[in-house]
Every structure is written in structure tokens, then in C-alpha cells.
Design a protein that fits this description.
By secondary structure, the protein is an alpha/beta fold. Helices cover 45% and strands 14% of the residues. The protein has eight helices and eight strands. The chain is globular and about 45 Å long. The two termini are 31 Å apart. The structure holds NADP nicotinamide-adenine-dinucleotide phosphate. NADP nicotinamide-adenine-dinucleotide phosphate binds next to helix 1 and helix 4.
């Protein structure tokens, strides 16, 4: 039986490259996407390149708890288990926006939504199989230190940094609990990648950022390589609670691998889960 992978934001950028690599590795791939029209086109392209027919699109809007619940419900109607979850989708919301559930939008899409999705899917990873969760974080985590009472008050670049730091902390914090359930969880820094999230060119400052970053940009395939390695390589089958860059774990300094922040974040997420799930 083919192994089952869910990739959020799989219709473009690194998510698309990751979904394609998993398809080539004979996974059944569920592309969890917000833009269904584009996702359908990408699915057809992935099917044609990989020769794998088991590629499916399902709608998810990670900024909406209702949509996350509907995605899981629809997924479980068609599949009875999941082996790989790649929490890849992400945004940098230009303006300060509060979602229908009361969260700052970047935080909701990049961190809170993925946590709720992960929580709902955990019971469906089959015990005794090779089960892995990967969170897309960023080198930007260094700018993401937060105060928990302000977690939905940050905006633009700071909100993005907080969300990426949260994705890293949650991977570290959940590792022990998930190990008992036979699931590994790791976070990834893909580098500085030429994708839609970076190359928006909406504001004059985006033009400047892109000119400055041009020498360090890598393409989405190269950016996705570490995530694909973590999802598919036997070498890291049992690795958990690590932060990876270029196929190797990074040792975080105590300033960032902060137990108090990890605990506070998980307590906050648990409160949200109780209220919303
Ligand atoms: N690019 C970089 O340099 C870089 C560096 C470090 C980390 N990362 C992380 O890598 C991940 C992938 O980003 P990327 O660079 O490949 O960017 P991308 O090409 O812009 O892809 C982002 C994906 O997220 C989806 N998405 C946006 N809002 C969503 C929502 N509300 N619900 C569900 N999906 C949503 C997008 O869908 P639509 O476009 O169809 O709306 C798209 O498929 C992100 O988590 C990002 O933070 C990127």
C-alpha cells in the first residue's frame, strides 16, 4: 500500500517541488491548497511528470479553523491514515488583519493553523509505521522572539518572524510526546528562496529587498531539498526535535531554544484548541 503524504501550499513554490518529489517517490500525495484552480493545474503537471496517478487536491484555508476542520473531515472520508505531514504553506500579510477566529493573519496561516491541523491529524498516523511531520521555519526565527500576550499584535515582518520561530519551537516541544506515538517532528530552514512569498514587488520596499537578496536567492527546487530529504531519507528516519538547514541539524543557542517560551506557546495553543476544536 502506498504511503500517504499531505503537503500544505503544494500548488506553487517549495510546496510544489516537495509534492513532486513525493510523487516521484510513489507516495499518495494530498495537496492541501487554498487556490483550487491553480492546485488542479499543478496536480495535473505533477501527475504528468511523475507518472503517479495518486495525487489529489483538497481545499484548506489555514487562516480559518472551520476550513481546517472541513479539510480533515474530507481527508478522512477518503483516506484512513497519514504518514507524512508537511506544514509548508505560509504568507507574509502586508497589513495587520485579524481572522474570523480572532488571530493575526500571518500568525494564523503560518503557525496557529498548522498546529490545529497537526493536532487533528495526530490520531491518524498509524502506529508502527514511518511517520514524519515537518514544519517550514526560517532563518528569520532569530527576529521572532515574542511575548505571549502580544502574539496576535505583531504585524508584517515581525509577525512573520514570530510565526517562523513558533513553528520551530513547537517542533522541539512536541518531539517527545510524538515519539511515544511513533511520529517524528522536525523544523526546516530552506534558505532564501525565489518564490511568491519573497518576490511580491507590491511595495517599493519589496523591490529594494529583492535587489538586495538577489545574490543569495536559490530556486524553489534547491530550497525544498532539505524538506524532501527529511521527508524521504532513511538516514533521518528516527531523527526528531531538530532544526535542519542544508540536510544537517543546527544547534540552537539557549537564547532561542528557550524552555519557558516553548511551554508558554504550547499552553497558548492548547487553550486555542480547547476553545476552537
Ligand atoms: N521563500 C523563502 O525564502 C523562504 C524562507 C524561509 C522559509 N520559507 C517558508 O517556506 C514555506 C513555503 O513558502 P514558499 O517560499 O514556497 O512561498 P510561496 O510560493 O508563496 O508558497 C506559499 C504557499 O502557501 C499557500 N497559502 C497562502 N495562504 C494560505 C492559506 N490561508 N491557507 C492555505 N495555504 C495558503 C499559498 O497558496 P496561494 O499562493 O495559492 O495563495 C502557496 O501555495 C512558507 O512557510 C515560508 O514561510 C520561505
Amino acid at each position: 500500500m502506498s504511503r500517504i503524504a499531505i503537503v500544505t501550499g503544494a500548488d506553487r513554490g517549495m510546496g510544489k517541488e516537495t509534492a513532486l518529489a513525493l510523487a516521484k517517490n510513489h507516495y499518495t500525495v494530498i495537496m492541501a491548497c487554498i487556490d483550487i484552480q491553480n492546485a488542479d493545474l499543478t496536480r495535473d503537471e505533477i501527475k504528468s511528470i511523475s507518472g503517479n496517478k495518486n495525487i489529489f487536491v483538497k481545499k484548506i484555508d489555514l487562516s480559518s479553523v472551520l476550513s481546517i476542520k472541513q479539510f480533515v473531515q474530507s481527508f478522512l472520508q477518503d483516506f484512513n491514515r497519514v504518514n507524512i505531514l508537511i506544514n509548508n504553506a505560509g504568507i507574509t500579510s502586508m497589513k495587520y488583519e485579524i481572522t474570523e477566529d480572532g488571530f493575526e493573519k500571518t500568525m494564523a496561516v503560518n503557525a496557529i493553523g498548522p498546529y490545529l491541523l497537526t493536532k487533528l491529524l495526530i490520531p491518524h498516523f498509524p502506529p508502527g509505521e514511518d511517520n514524519r511531520i515537518i514544519n517550514l521555519s526560517s532563518w528569520f526565527y532569530k527576529y521572532g522572539r515574542f511575548s505571549i500576550d502580544k502574539i496576535n499584535k505583531y504585524h508584517y515582518v515581525k509577525a512573520y518572524a514570530v510565526s517562523k520561530y513558533a513553528q520551530l519551537l513547537v517542533a522541539l516541544e512536541l518531539a517527545d510526546e510524538l515519539k511515544e506515538k511513533g511520529i517524528t517532528i522536525n523544523a526546516v530552514d530552506p534558505g532564501t528562496v525565489r518564490t511568491g512569498i519573497m518576490v511580491t514587488n507590491i511595495w517599493w520596499r519589496d523591490f529594494i529587498i529583492n535587489i538586495l537578496l538577489a545574490p543569495v536567492y536559490i530556486d524553489p527546487k534547491e530550497g525544498a531539498a532539505t524538506c524532501i530529504y527529511l521527508a524521504t531519507s532513511d538516514e533521518v528516519k528516527n531523527e526528531t526535535g531538530n532544526f535542519y538547514r542544508k540536510s544537517g541539524p543546527i544547534v540552537l543557542s539557549g537564547k532561542y531554544n528557550n524552555k519557558a517560551a516553548r511551554t508558554e506557546l504550547l499552553q497558548y495553543y492548547e487553550k486555542i484548541s480547547t476553545l476552537h476544536l
